[in-house]
Specification:
By secondary structure, this protein is an alpha/beta fold.
């Protein structure tokens, strides 16, 4: 293993000890060497040496914010988020405007307190259903002791305590950060709940001198039903923790499936076809996204999903029956399901969701049928009345059967999941679609034989590249500007050096194919992109030696003999942050030949003031019951100030679009303030602003028409800064923009 990190750190550490007067001069070098060395130690699991470095570094640089921030990042890597946040908060107390510290804090919070915690706690129907089911079981069983598996903030344990004076309540939780919240909640409410900081499968009743539990309550279900080791956990609980008369809440889970349309597949494939049409030859190969997980979570609020068949029961699992749990885990519940199409049309995939029976009277569903369109039910005046009436009645029956409260639950803590096809397929009314559904090893799986791609080869590519190629507007606009620049370029020979550092060098490969350039430099940072480029260049008869791969753009800065005619950069990452490419922008401009071009020339940040109920639901808890219990204030300490992949389905725009700033091309602190008018027609309707939605306007060349990333197919996601501003009796607000270390933030100031 490479020992250079240790060698460099030992040298800089000794230098600081022997020459204290030079510490300030070498501080930044020390922090870099410390970070690299600690990463090296983590790979070796040398924790004693890690903590020695912690102690030494704080003695050498007491209260130094850069050191504190670096130590916080390392603590998070070794899964100590509580301690990590303490260090980064100390750094922020010293430098409150250091955006890299803020970013690290947000990243830790988002990693360990995922957004579904907020949605789950805001789901009052879900909370009340659990409350009633637990009360019913406590009254029926009169348990002597109760276990809450995966207690989170401790809410279900509280419900248990509210319904007994004699039972002893235990709660287990593996996440230290959530366990800290639960512990504070129990203390605030004077509850005698014993908190076990471990997984339930690591509870040994003999070691704890405990009898078996008469009641086990849990809510560790994800959108895929069994994804959080539900089956293994409950099998262990039945075998080792539950008494003979004991019960588990919930008692049953049922899986339903349906054929669906309008989930965005057709638009994406159309975008890729438009991008590649008449340019790169793919040898009858269809590019499809590589899905790392067995299924994708489908945000029902982001799509107007069209049901093409009636949801059909695949199977149910009795969570109080050991054989049923074991059969599900072993894959013995493999079921063939027949889906009857309700009309002519196309389907883009299959949807699966679950219905959770807490008891006989309380049920929860992960799918809101009332918010869904039905194939041929909407905007189909030519269909027969009898068919419409039949389908409408089916829809009403399904709503009543599976989730009678769906119409009042705008935001649920679960979403359905989807199994996408590679391309849409045609269906006929009354056609039967056969699929197989199983959950071997706790992973929900759906298999089918429907594809129109039998005669073509499928090539799975990383999702980042697939999304980029599907953004035909971006690529075609960039191609137009590159072609325009090449016609202006004084150099007429074809021995041009071209740097295409976008997620996939589509333009560079096309220029090589047309013999317009002699050498292409491109990035190999995206996983598996090199193999894809090798395949495509081979299919297009491009010699391999004409393509040079760069692992890190920084490496090219030190190549003194390379000068480019054209450079294409990706200034914004797919998740919406300023990309590292901007860090080298000015230096790369010096790598251009005379009259060479670098794209883009400028990027503006545009914003809109908004109020979004969805945004509030995923970033903070607002619940009167939880406020009284102290849960609301404790969990809201971990609310984020930035929401990635903002979904704008329920947005109320409170201002026109305004440009706040251009991205600055250096690391210095830059501040700007502007006054933004509130839309007159909305200021009385909504008295609060809770978000600053932002996107980018990309100028590929000076004076070119900018391309906005605020588009449906944009590979650059829209994001939002979270705020809370009362605008009652206000006509405008002041927005502050701040940028440093190639990170920016926007906020409303008084």
């Amino acid at each position: 293993m490479n020992e250079l990190p240790q060698i460099f750190f030992n040298k800089i550490e000794n230098l600081c000890k022997l020459n204290p007067e030079q510490k300030i001069e070498v501080r930044n070098t020390y922090v870099t060497c410390l970070t690299n060395y600690l990463d090296y130690l983590i790979s070796l699991e040398s924790y004693n040496e890690i903590f020695r470095c912690f102690k030494e570094s704080q003695e050498l640089f007491p209260n130094d914010p850069e050191v504190l921030n670096a130590l916080g990042v390392v603590l998070n890597k070794i899964k100590k988020p509580v301690e990590a946040l303490k260090y980064i908060n100390l750094a922020l107390e010293i430098c409150p405007e250091k955006l890299s510290y803020m970013e690290n804090k947000d990243n830790i919070i988002n990693q360990w307190v995922e957004r579904w915690h907020f949605v789950m706690l805001n789901d009052t129907y879900r909370n009340n259903a659990y409350k009633k089911a637990i009360a019913s079981q406590m009254q029926c069983l009169e348990p002597t002791n109760v276990l809450d598996i995966g207690t989170g903030t401790g809410l279900l344990s509280i419900y248990c305590c509210e319904n007994t004076r004699t039972a002893t309540v235990y709660a287990c939780e593996t996440d230290d950060l959530m366990a800290d919240i639960a512990e504070k909640v129990f203390k605030k409410n004077n509850l005698q709940v014993t908190l076990l900081r471990r997984h339930s499968m690591n509870i040994n009743l003999n070691e704890l001198n405990l009898p078996r539990f008469d009641l086990i309550v849990t809510e560790i279900f994800d959108s895929g039903a069994f994804g959080e080791s539900v089956l293994e956990t409950l099998i262990h609980a039945k075998q080792h923790l539950l008494s003979e008369r004991g019960k588990i809440v919930p008692r049953k889970i049922s899986i339903f499936v349906a054929a669906i349309n309008k989930i965005g597949l057709a638009e994406v494939l159309q975008g890729i076809e438009s991008t590649l049409e008449n340019s790169i030859y793919l040898k009858d190969t269809i590019l499809v996204p590589r899905i790392e997980e067995p299924y994708e979570v489908l945000d029902q609020n982001a799509y107007k999903i069209e049901l093409c068949s009636e949801p059909t029961l695949a199977f149910s699992v009795d969570l109080n029956n050991l054989d049923s749990l074991q059969n599900a885990f072993d894959g013995k519940l493999d079921r063939q399901v027949e889906l009857r199409c309700i009309g002519d049309g196309t389907i883009e995939g299959f949807l699966a969701y679950f219905v959770l029976d807490l008891d006989d009277d309380n049920k929860l569903s992960s799918f809101d049928i009332s918010q869904t369109q039905w194939l041929n039910l909407i905007d189909n005046e030519n269909s027969e009345n009898s068919t419409n009436n039949s389908t409408e009645e089916s829809a009403r029956n399904l709503e009543r059967t599976y989730d009678a409260t769906s119409s009042i639950r705008k935001f649920k803590c679960w979403d359905p999941i989807k199994f996408s096809l590679f391309e849409p397929i045609a269906i006929r009314k009354y056609q039967i679609l056969k699929v197989n559904v199983s959950c071997r090893q706790g992973i929900l799986k759906l298999d089918h034989n429907f594809t129109n791609l039998c005669k073509k080869r499928l090539l799975e590519i990383p999702m980042d590249i697939f999304s980029f190629l599907a953004d035909d507007e971006f690529i075609l606009e960039l191609e137009y500007n590159v072609d325009k620049a090449m016609r202006k370029y004084s150099k007429k020979e074809n021995n041009m050096i071209f740097g295409d550092f976008l997620p996939f060098p589509h333009i560079g490969i096309n220029l090589l194919k047309e013999n317009k350039i002699s050498k292409l430099y491109c990035s190999s940072q995206v996983k598996d992109v090199k193999d894809l480029i090798d395949k495509v260049s081979s299919w297009n008869c491009i010699p391999k030696h004409l393509i040079v791969f760069i692992d890190d753009l920084e490496n090219i800065l030190y190549e003194t003999d390379i000068k480019f005619d054209f450079i294409l950069l990706q200034p914004v990452s797919s998740c919406g942050n300023i990309n590292n490419h901007m860090r080298y922008y000015q230096i790369l401009k010096n790598k251009l030949k005379p009259n060479g071009f670098i794209f883009p020339s400028k990027i503006d940040i545009s914003c809109k003031l908004i109020y979004s109920e969805w945004l509030e639901n995923v970033t903070s808890v607002h619940n009167k019951e939880l406020e009284k219990l102290g849960i609301e204030s404790l969990i809201n300490e971990y609310g984020t100030k930035k929401q990635f992949e903002f979904i704008n389905f329920d947005v109320n725009y409170l201002s026109d679009i305004f440009t706040i700033s251009s991205i600055q091309q250096d690391e210095n602190i830059f501040k700007k303030e502007i006054v933004v008018n509130i839309s007159n027609n909305l200021q009385n309707q909504y008295n609060r602003i809770n978000g600053i939605l932002y996107f980018y306007k990309i100028f590929f060349m000076n004076n070119s028409i900018p391309l906005s990333t605020n588009r449906k197919k944009s590979f650059i996601k829209g994001n939002c800064f979270v705020c809370d501003c009362d605008i009652t009796h206000k006509n405008n607000v002041k927005i502050q923009y701040i940028q440093n270390d190639f990170i920016f933030r926007c906020k409303i100031i008084d």
